Amino acid sequence: MPPDRVFDELKSGPNGLSTDEAAGRLTIHGPNRIDEKRRDRLIVDLLNRFRNPLVLVLLLAAAIAGSMGDAASFAIIATVVTLSVLLDFVQERRAQSAADKLRDRVAITSNAIRDGRLQPVQAAMLVPGDVLSLCAGDLIPADCRLLSANNIFVNQALLTGESYPAAKLAQSALPETAQSTVPQNAVFMGSSVVSGTATAVVVRTGRRTALGGIAGSLRKEPPPTAFALGLHDFSVLIVRLTLLLVLFVLLINLLFHRPPLESFMFALALAVGLTPELLPMIVSVTLAHGALRMAERRVIVKRLSAIHDLGSMDVLCSDKTGTLTEADIALVRTVDLGGADCPEAQQAAWLNSNFETGIKSPLDEAILKAGAAGAEGWTKIDEVPFDFERRRVSVLAERTGTRRLFVKGAPEDILELSASFARGANELPLDERALDDARARLAEYGRHGYRVLGIAWKTVAADCAHAHLTDESALVFAGFALFLDPPKESAADALNELAALHVAVKVITGDNEHVTGHVCDAIGLDAGDTLTGAEIDGLSDEALSARMRNTNKFCRVTPAQKQRIIAGLRRAGHVVGYVGDGINDAPSLHAADVGLSVDSAVDVAKEAASMILLENDLRVLAEGVREGRRTFANIRKYVMMGTSSNFGNMFSMAGGVLFLPFLPMLPVQILLNNLLYDVSEIAIPMDEVDPDIVAAPRRWDIKFVRDFMLVLGPVSSLFDFVTFGLLLWLFHASEPVFHTGWFVESLATQCLVILVIRTRGSPLRSRPSRLLAGMSLGVVAVATLLPYTLVGRWFGFAALPPGLLLALAGTTVLYLLLAQIVKRAFYRRHPAY
After folding, report:
1. Residues belonging to the active site
2. Radius of gyration of the CA atoms of the chain, in A
3. DSSP 545-595
4. SS3 breakdown of the chain: % helix, strand, coil, rounded to 5?
5. What confidence tens digit (pLDDT) does each residue in 577-617 have?
6. How far apart (Å, rounded) are the C-alpha atoms in residues 657 and 257?
């Protein structure tokens, strides 16, 4: 539905209901179709795997073989391809299901009235007619019409482009002048509540919303991550090699006048052997396994590829409160400009926090907990909600005919807006001398670790009904509210852990540089330089990037400045993580490589984050970094396999057609070889990882992968050609024996070399997981015993004499020893990896 039609429907009432009818409506929900949709998606996903071009060509080849009377080849190829696809599908779906269950634990929910009571409902399960309760920080999950509103302000920039929050009213009719604009009595999917509370009835969901109507024009694919780019580069490399070898094999077979169908089938089977068709499954299973292990460490992964980004992270940007401090904030004193206790300032602060309808910050909670004498009798008239550019909130209240605007916010800004200050019952001019004294006192409070709010007021006309931004001027400065938030005892240990992982921590905060410096000194954070928001505004992007190298504290910054800092760090080549839990943190969470929030964060922050910390503790994050690196290491093991022994064996097949009087291996035997090899690698996601791999961030480097292939691949091919010589000239093997002998040697070298490649060090010291070792040895045992079975004869295998088996075993051992020697020499030349 076009947005303007949605707007008209919302203006005229939800689904034809009056406001009263909608408010009292009983929401009756029919059978849930989620299970049916999930089943349909599974079927489509499975069928799509058979639409893979390579799989379609193989099935076409099987059909050609069947049409020419080769029923055995048809059955074997179809069965092997089907089993390979099903193996990929089942493993990936199991992994995806596990990851989905983790994401459901932190899914965005809305408070809806169902069964006569208010209860949390997942946003995806809402239907038209649901009545929602909205409050500050909520992400609006559908297009809704307001039934009641209490000073509610909504950020709807996604629809209107206006950055300043829009006021909303619950009214049944709008004036004609408003008909062409976004309705004031409606809120829309994708918007967020900045302040206030409301109840609303759902009118449109999903694609029928205003946002859904313009989704096509708004949709913008996020830039590819380093993880996605690395996989793409690897895939391109393999495709090029595959095309080169397949064309070479076809050309040689045609020149030698070999049967066209057999040559075609051999070339296709060779392509299958070269193609890492299990790479998507290995990636999905490894990432999902990593997500499950991270969940055990109290980190929930929403975007699986973020696991790699977290492991690659080398800079973490974080606020102080709750991360470096206990977030157990207490109001210690309220003082006037001269440093004397000031109950009037505490009363003004209490009234402001009590009447404010936005999210209650920890400072607000501390003020309300401390209480205030003499605050009775005031009633709220209006407010100007908090925003992160102004860094203050104003409340208009009245008592006994006197109306006063109470303002609370960043002390530097409140001082700038004040024309006088209170000293007892007197008001004195706030001249330059008084301002200098106030700033000096503010700096002293910061050096002692106090967080400070400025408190001011302004008496307005008795008939003033609304508060405006312009009213925040010529204020009477009442005093400072002083808070203490002790540093976390665990923060120092967490910072040491992150430093050991080569992750630099930079503090980005709205607090001033003095209190930030006090906290950083207390927890032992490397001091470095300090930049303030005002200084950042005076720097170009290039100058800011240069200053950031030695800067660990960014103070008094706005949300826009946070994004600029993160963008600068990324331009400098860093992988940046950001920890945030507030409304103002959503843009920075999007801007970072990996956004991290906490389970207690507002909806907007949780939605923007790619990971959710169930504990607001950097030690939890350090464990997540380690797990991210383990996960990437296991994915890279498969890649290294595909570019060394696997490529070497396929290269040997291509080379063998030059001098062998027959094909080195039958097409169906190549497919079986590939299937068994794939089975042996299923356990890679569960493998152990060496501590030195986890110690530092690592990223994809296709040049490193290519170099590894060019060094280790020929070692595999060398021993394949040695095997060819043994079979032809020492044992005078017939064609079936030759196929069988090389099938056994090929599988043994491919499956066992993973035990060498999986570690930079000695495979005898770095033990693989039992599952990986068992799967590798088990597949080698199956390959060795298969020729002696009836099934083996169906595949064209022949029984091997004991002497040949012993020679093949010796060749495999020598190959593994040489692979270890070459691998160690390679890593000495590439110490960074």
Report:
1. 319
2. 34
3. HHHHTTEEEEES--HHHHHHHHHHHHHTT--EEEE--SGGGHHHHHHSSEE
4. 55, 20, 30
5. 999 877 678 788 888 888 888 877 777 777 788 888 888 77
6. 12
